Amino acid sequence: MSAERLELHLPDESATRALGAALAPALVPGLRVWLQGDLGAGKTALVRAVLRALGFSGTVRSPTYTLVELYPVSRLNFYHLDLYRFEFHEEFIDAGLEECFGGDAVCFVEWPEKAESFLPPADLVLRLSVDGPGRRVTIEARSEKGQACLRRLARCLQAVRPPAGASSSAPDSPA
Ligand SMILES: Nc1ncnc2c1ncn2[C@@H]1O[C@H](COP(=O)(O)OP(=O)(O)O)[C@@H](O)[C@H]1O
Ligand SMILES: [Mg+2]
């Protein structure tokens, strides 16, 4: 079985862009990706990097107020959600956000913990944190689909390292 977890140090923003560029081709329709981490950890920056790599050249705003943005990019319908402002999990239902899930769209969700009683399970969970001047990210696969994505991502990162600048600690040993 392949690694279910990957930890990377992202020393600067170009490393975040490199991670986005490696993650983009690993996405498949219907994939659900949760982004956890404090304000300023780099969740939106990573989504922006993924969208750039998928060929979207417009502005990628944080959906803190709009809750959700849809980007029809490349071969995917790509939803970017930010649930930060929710006080109650039920607001997810009131806002009609369930409709984003269940189809073939890829969904990246910031602050999933704000509606976890109503969200479907994640395929991949990315936890971002500030690490000195850079960032640290752990990526955990929570489903077979997520594992396959993580495998493709790891291969892609290996192919571009070291010039991409994303240094990696060893993923968990295979089970
Ligand atoms: N690897 C990195 N190293 C240092 N700064 C980064 C890195 N990746 C992103 N940043 C910066 O961190 C900030 C993250 O902001 P943002 O993505 O809006 O955070 P969040 O969505 O988690 O609240 C941005 O100013 C971005 O330029
Ligand atoms: Mg954000």
Main traits of this protein?
175 residues, alpha/beta, Rossmann fold, 8-stranded mixed beta sheet, 27% strand, disordered C terminus, binds adenosine-5'-diphosphate, binds magnesium ion
Tell me what the structure shows.
The chain has a single domain (5-166), classed as Rossmann fold (3-Layer(aba) Sandwich), CATH 3.40.50. Helices cover 25% and strands 27% of the residues. The protein contains four helices and eight strands. The chain has helices at 13-23, 43-53, 91-94, 144-160, and strands at residues 5-10, 32-36, 68-73, 76-82, 106-110, 124-131, 134-141, 167-169. The protein has an eight-stranded mixed β-sheet with strand order 3-4-5-2-6-7-1-8. Helix 1 crosses helix 2 (43-53) and helix 1 (13-23) packs across helix 4. The longest helix has 17 residues, at 144-160. The radius of gyration is 15 Å and the shape is globular. It starts with a strand and ends in a 6-residue tail after the last strand. Magnesium ion (MG) binds at residues 43-44, 62, 82, 110.
Average pLDDT number: 90
Q: Name the overall outline.
A: globular
SSE string, helix = H, strand = E?
EHEHEEHEEEHE
Helix content, binned percent: 10-25%
Low-confidence stretches: 164-175
- Alpha-beta classification: alpha/beta
What is the rounded distance between the termini? 6 Å
The total beta strand count reads 8
Q: CATH-wise, what's the superfamily?
A: P-loop containing nucleotide triphosphate hydrolases
Tell me the number of structural domains: 1
